[in-house]
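We close this part of the discussion by returning to an individual protein. Part of our work consisted of pairing the sequence of a single chain with a tokenised description of its backbone. What the numbers capture is local backbone geometry rather than side-chain detail. The amino acid sequence and the backbone structure tokens for this protein are reproduced below.
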Amino acid sequence: MNARFPFSLALAAIALLLVGGAAGWAIQSSRSGTIDDAEFNKRVHAYIVDHPEVLVEAAENLKSQGSKDQLANVADAIEKPFPGAVLGNPNGTLTLVEFTDFACTYCRSSMADVEAVIAANPDLKVVIRELPIIAPTSGDAARWGLAAAEQGKYPAFHKAMFAAGRTDLASIEGAARAAGLDLDRARKFSQDPRVSAEIEANIGFARKLGIDGTPAWVVGEELIVGAIGREGLAKAVAAARGK
């Protein structure tokens, strides 16, 4: 493409490529010298006016590619769990990362879906990344979750916490008792600098990946935001496995 074309025109040309023939003709004509810059600009502008949807498609494509690039940069880090904060097979060869908040109703409704996918995939390791962004008490629940992980009882606390349906202190301690935690040990560990660092790291990962809600999932090279149901999770896991 002519070096004098502005960046915005280059982006428009990329957008046109998404819709095939007309873009290919215009760009090929420019390359072959059959139209000059002004004519090329005019035809691209006219096409975009008549087909504005290509810009939306181009923007979505660029955003998706940006997310993939960011994911590639942090994939190894987010797949390394806080010690003990894992569901499924801790030694699994296939990893599903879940960003979750105990105050999130969609996360709670996704529990059964995650359990079903774990049951169908014995080699699946689900790495939990606590992302307390919904309620004022989400942070307390996340800290106790990591304290449960430190005691090797994260899955039981995770289940009891979502069953409680609330993140107030009474519910948190009730879930901790149900999971068999040493409460004094958990209370102390919840204030450990390692816990604060983990939560801050998770918030940082979410920002880099453009995650603004929970649940969010990372499996293979795919980032998914939202409760996608049992079938959606199963498909994502199967795709990561290469089936």
